[in-house]
Each structure stands twice: as structure tokens, then as C-alpha cells.
From TrEMBL:
Gene3D superfamilies, alphabetized: 3.10.620.30
Domain Transglutaminase-like span(s) in chain numbering: 183-248
InterPro entries: Bac_transglu_N (IPR013589), Papain-like_cys_pep_sf (IPR038765), Transglutaminase-like (IPR002931)
Top-level taxon of the source organism: Bacteria
Lineage: Bacteria, Pseudomonadati, Pseudomonadota, Betaproteobacteria, Burkholderiales
Name listed for the protein in its UniProt record: Transglutaminase-like domain-containing protein
Pfam name, any one: Transglut_core
Length: 293
């Protein structure tokens, strides 16, 4: 899909997840990061969530919209549906002082600062590793030459290209518990793994980086609709970031809709839950993304 610069792209998104169980769920508690928020890269026109329980809404320390619900069973199915429209802003210019100095970050830089009255962690919080984003010596040695002269956008794109070559995209070779180092040494994985390797490598070299979950529109590859990429901090003081899709080796563009950010997959997962009962779980996911005029 060719995306013209500075022309907004709007999508209607329908995301349905159904869990089925051979043994009924007696009780469950769920945490959802399934509601995108408006920001420098997108504007949410409307968004609705439905689930088998009363939804409460809050913001986490990363700025994500988080919903929680508790379900009292017994139940053999749990269906969670998200629907809405999002307009993506193509190549937005940073604002204020960051905009005046955006040349340091180059093409693709954007400013992401807390809204008035919002509490959010510092970008420096994304310097620390997690069990899923550790980078031992061999990963650091792989990444270091790409960023030896700095971490401007061209260098970050070169690193993303190197990671995409090293961790080849292959479905069903990893799972949600696979760490960055496991995928790196295996040499294959999916978007989640490639993004976590990028995040881990940048953090190990002193650059704040965060994991992003979201949607990717490609009419010819519906299986990629659920997607992940990485935000790399170009300047922590000014809240200047660059969002890079390792899988597609590009700065994010009009094909990308953001859902949540976190330190790794676990802290940005669209759905997390704790169950009593509920053996024999299977999951069915259906995501439809329709471009709007």
C-alpha cells in the first residue's frame, strides 16, 4: 500500500477474540489494553469495547488506556470485542522546541509528552531490561556497530534491517513467552520477537526503548493485522521518539495503528487474564481492518 505523506488515513477496526474451554471457567479477572488513545501519530474517532462483565477504565503509568473486568462463571466461552475508527497522521512534525530541533532526530521523529495533569513514567524508565528483553554479550556485540556513531534515525533503521535479517520472520516458531535472546539465538520468530530484540539491543546500549502493540493494515496479508514494533527515544528531555517497524524495516506510517506501549510484550499485551477452572483453552481471533474514504 502506497501512503502519501501528510494525508491522513482512516480505518474502521473490528477485533473479536473468543476463548473456549472444555472445562467451564468458574471465575476470571481480565486486564485489557484494547483501546487506542489519540496522540501525535493518530486520532481516535470513536472506540467501543464489549466483554462479559462490567468494564472499569483507567490509565497506566505508560499512558495506555486499561480496562478491567471480573466474570463470575460458569462459562465455556469468553468473547471480547473491540470496534472503532482511527485516523492515522502521516509523518507528523514535532511541535514546540522539539520541532525546531527535529533535525537531530531526522525524518520520523515525533514528540510524545504527558497530557496536562497526566502522570506518566519518564522515558528513562525504558532503559531497564526485563526477563523478556535482556541483551547478553552476543546481542550487544551484534547491535553495537550499527549505533557506534549515534542513534539517529538512519542508524536505527540499519539496526532494524540487521535484526530482520538475523531473526527471520517465521510463524509458529516462538510463543508469547519467548524472550528476545531466545529468538535472537534461534534466528527466527514473529513481529513480537523482532520488536523485543530491537528494544533489548537499544536498552543494552543506553538508549530508552519501548515495545508497541497495535494493528497493521495490508489487504494482502490479513494474518499480520495484529502487529508489534518498537519506539526508540531520540531525546528523553524533550520526549522525542521514533517508531520503527522491524518486520517491515521502516518507520511506522499510515498502515500502523497503535494500541499500547510497554517495557515488553507482557506489559503491553492486548488481553491478560487469571482464571479459576477453564481447562482446555482454545482461542479464536478475528481482526478486520477496513480503510475509509
Amino acid at each position: 500500500m502506497h501512503v502519501a505523506r501528510d494525508i491522513p488515513v482512516k480505518y474502521k477496526i473490528h477485533h473479536k477474540t473468543i476463548y473456549r474451554y472444555t472445562e467451564p471457567v468458574r471465575r476470571s479477572v481480565h486486564e485489557l489494553r484494547l483501546a487506542p488513545r489519540s496522540g501525535p501519530l493518530q486520532s481516535v474517532q470513536y472506540w467501543t469495547l464489549s466483554a462479559p462483565g462490567n468494564l472499569s477504565e483507567a490509565r497506566d503509568g505508560f499512558g495506555n488506556i486499561v480496562h478491567n473486568f471480573t466474570m463470575a462463571g460458569p462459562a465455556r466461552t469468553i468473547a471480547i470485542v473491540a470496534t472503532g475508527e482511527v485516523e492515522v497522521r502521516i509523518d507528523p512534525a514535532p511541535t514546540g522546541q522539539a520541532g525546531a530541533e527535529a533535525g537531530e532526530g531526522g525524518h520520523g521523529a515525533f514528540q510524545d509528552l504527558p497530557e496536562a495533569g497526566e502522570s506518566r513514567v519518564s522515558p528513562l524508565y525504558f532503559l531497564s531490561g526485563t526477563p523478556l528483553t535482556q541483551a547478553p554479550a552476543d546481542m550487544q556485540a551484534f547491535a553495537a556497530p550499527y549505533l557506534a556513531a549515534g542513534h539517529e534515525v538512519p542508524a536505527l533503521l540499519a539496526l532494524a534491517d540487521g535484526i530482520a535479517e538475523r531473526v527471520q520472520y517465521r510463524a509458529n516458531t516462538t510463543d508469547v513467552g519467548t524472550s528476545a535472546v531466545e529468538a535472537f539465538r534461534l534466528g527466527s520468530g514473529v513481529c513480537q520477537d523482532q520488536a523485543q530484540v530491537m528494544v533489548a539491543a537499544c536498552r543494552a546500549l543506553g538508549i530508552p526503548a519501548r515495545y508497541v502493540s497495535g494493528y497493521f493494515y495490508d489487504a494482502a496479508a490479513a494474518s499480520l493485522a495484529s502487529h508489534a514494533w518498537a519506539d526508540i527515544c531520540l531525546d528523553a528531555d524533550r520526549g522525542l521518539w521514533c517508531s520503527i517497524d522491524v518486520t517491515h524495516r521502516c518507520i511506522t506510517d499510515g498502515r500502523h495503528v497503535r494500541l499500547a506501549v510497554g517495557r515488553d510484550y507482557a506489559s503491553a499485551a492486548p488481553i491478560r487474564g487469571i482464571l479459576e477452572g477453564g481447562a482446555g483453552e482454545t482461542m479464536e481471533v478475528d481482526i478486520e481492518i477496513t480503510p475509509l474514504a
